[in-house]
Amino acid sequence: MSEAKIILEEKEIPRAWYNIQADMPEPPSPPLNSVTQQPTVPDDLAAIFPPDLIAQEASRERWIEIPGEVLEIYRLWRPTPLHRAHRLEQALQTPAQIYYKYEGVSPAGSHKPNTAVAQAYYNKKAGIKRLTTETGAGQWGSALSIACRFFGLECTVYMVRVSYNQKPYRRSFMEVYGAQVIPSPSAETAAGRKVLADHPDSPGSLGIAISEAVEDAVQHGDANYSLGSVLNHVLLHQSVIGLEAKAQMAKADLYPDVVIACHGGGSNFAGLAFPFLQDKFQGKEVRAVAVEPTACPTLTRGQYLYDFGDTAGLTPLIRMYTLGHDFIPPGIHAGGLRYHGAASLVSKLYHDGYIEAQAYGQTEVFQSALLFAQTEGILPAPEAAHAIHAAVVEAAAAREAGEKRVILFNLSGHGHFDLTAYDDYLENKLNNITFSPEMQAESKKTIPKVE
Amino acid sequence: MSEAKIILEEKEIPRAWYNIQADMPEPPSPPLNSVTQQPTVPDDLAAIFPPDLIAQEASRERWIEIPGEVLEIYRLWRPTPLHRAHRLEQALQTPAQIYYKYEGVSPAGSHKPNTAVAQAYYNKKAGIKRLTTETGAGQWGSALSIACRFFGLECTVYMVRVSYNQKPYRRSFMEVYGAQVIPSPSAETAAGRKVLADHPDSPGSLGIAISEAVEDAVQHGDANYSLGSVLNHVLLHQSVIGLEAKAQMAKADLYPDVVIACHGGGSNFAGLAFPFLQDKFQGKEVRAVAVEPTACPTLTRGQYLYDFGDTAGLTPLIRMYTLGHDFIPPGIHAGGLRYHGAASLVSKLYHDGYIEAQAYGQTEVFQSALLFAQTEGILPAPEAAHAIHAAVVEAAAAREAGEKRVILFNLSGHGHFDLTAYDDYLENKLNNITFSPEMQAESKKTIPKVE
What we know:
The structure is a homodimer.
Chain A: E1 5-6, E2 16-18, H1 51-58, E3 63-65, H2 68-74, E4 82-84, H3 86-92, E5 97-102, H4 113-125, E6 130-135, H5 139-150, E7 154-160, H6 161-166, H7 168-176, E8 180-184, H8 190-198, H9 206-219, E9 223-225, H10 232-237, H11 239-251, E10 258-262, H12 267-281, E11 287-293, H13 298-301, E12 303-308, E13 317-322, H14 344-351, E14 356-360, H15 362-376, H16 382-401, E15 406-411, H17 419-426, H18 437-443
Parallel strand pairs in A: 5-15, 6-7, 6-9, 7-8, 10-11, 10-15, 11-14
Antiparallel strand pairs in A: 1-4, 2-3, 4-5, 12-13
Helix pairs in contact in A: 2-4, 3-15, 4-5, 5-7, 8-9, 11-12, 15-16
């Protein structure tokens, strides 16, 4: 039997990020200033982002060198292992070979530190003393807390109040690394005070927390804001996942027929898929599948329009698949996939037919998550379980077709902080909310008109 | 700068466990039947253990081959990485080189599966259908749940009731892998019913849970009992840790001056230290340090006597360092170190001067845990943090002495399920209970007389 893991040495960590903007047959539509409706200029972003990240956002360079200071952190857990899921294959009785890249070995337990570390570094380099951000379930806040500690930056995390109360362990985790965690809405910002004046008992939302974090950064010269997905530079930093995976598959003399990742804002999917799409642009046959929840089917049911990236309408207008910027996705356990939009780069590629999208319900996703845990051992995060389920579906199709397909998916994080979700599944308490015609009609109302 | 991790390939997983009984200058005193006070015979154990494990318990063979079926599971996460703690060294400004073996990459998050998988395999081979065990904080129950699932065995875990109520996530974790988790004391066993009759609201204890698990196994012919530390065969299985660490240090052309591990029942310490002691028996200079909590200082304050391994007095009499078999250690967060005794093999080596022991209080241990998390990234389990603290103390001594000592410790697990402990530390709520003269006087009362 072949090996269960394909390992790279530390010296094989990629030395440059892959920028798909260099190779896309058509560039994505530019972001627009929401007031002028003209393409944004770097100055529009200077109040909250450092120069290097603003430059990366618009860069067309194919390879962007990873700074030594970032590599020095990456090597604490990178390269991450590529596993062959022998035991899952046996359980599925499939002729397919299933591989998964495991990003849960990072100290934060997910792929998020790949960009958190880079963002902390570039902000430190720009003389910034503190980063602000929002977090819902806590994955992104955890990653940024660790990254800030590594570079000696302070970190302020606005955590959606209902999560702050329900997930005290996530808050403690961030505090271990020195972050200040503030339940949102808070009295610290005008945005928060306004919400509290109208709704003193507001449970908060990601949209409100973003508004607070951005306001905090804008109002303090030595503070910047940091975002964990959607933006081009975030997707860029995540390319280390796919670059390593390609090198690992090559060691086994293999190339995947299909690469699969879950899709929330797009950075996890892009991280795995974009380095393979580079080959696809040059004629290589490879499918790339983004997997989303039926409760928030941005790609499969959204529209390709200019819309705001945040609920409050503070961001530039971004052309993307969107369910409407004030669409509030139903409460599902894969909190990281509850985003109304999709990254501009992912949206363009989907629109132009280079990638596919699939949507699944919670129950079937958790069924595959349990099968995976019981065969491969690792308890997956609910977000990552969407990719597992799509891989299970592909493996069944390969069995039907009698084909030895090679399937690669991204296991983007572990589920050690998500056991409430597993409890609900085991007790048959999971809802299976699907995006309805009524939700669809409602979701489009506030999308702005762009000529 | 040298590498941050030393990695072995899958084919470098050890093919045999190291049995220190082959090399000890003096063998440990034999266990005694508690009724006859004569050395136990294999039949004494046949009601609850399979033949292969009973044979391993008494074996003097130096190398015991690891079955292929066990290796096939080990390779899901083994070999585990050996990290060089560059960033911790810098924070401590020490000339010492600090290395740590990280066992938290296993699906259960600790070193426990190294023996759980072996025990499940040998029981399956013996035709056993179900394993019973006890668990307190949940580390061991989690490991055995996963191992049983891998070999198609049922698993019944008697979980101390107060932990069952306080740590619902640990219970859910075990249930994901199909284990039946029963709060103890329960109405399922005579032992449990007896406790409940006298104390309907009993919070339970590890001693009661052991009694229930053993009774369940004894009364059902197709069920056996499984223990997560203390016994010779458990220590044997953990030797993969030290064997891999030796191979990894050799790749860096290094040999440790001191190896350090936390000590509860002894299997984690033995796992790292015994393969190095093999060299020490042949004249190599290497110190081995077992680290325990001041609240339960078995080695540093206990007596070397025959005593029971469990609270209820069901086990054979074992010659070991003990605080008395009905000593109830104060409630500290390192639940895995709250054991009144020490493994027979570890006790003998400590008595004969081959190993050292140190005891530390909770506050200083958590201080080092935070320093470690903030420099190396990984959030350590409270048990493992004892080893970290001892390594920090050694590194400071090396700085004082101006010596480039090589320090190796075992980071036996992560702390993802221990954030209540970190909360208490951050809020200055940790107690620092130390073993008092009164506790010492009380603890010896029930140690049986052996002629």
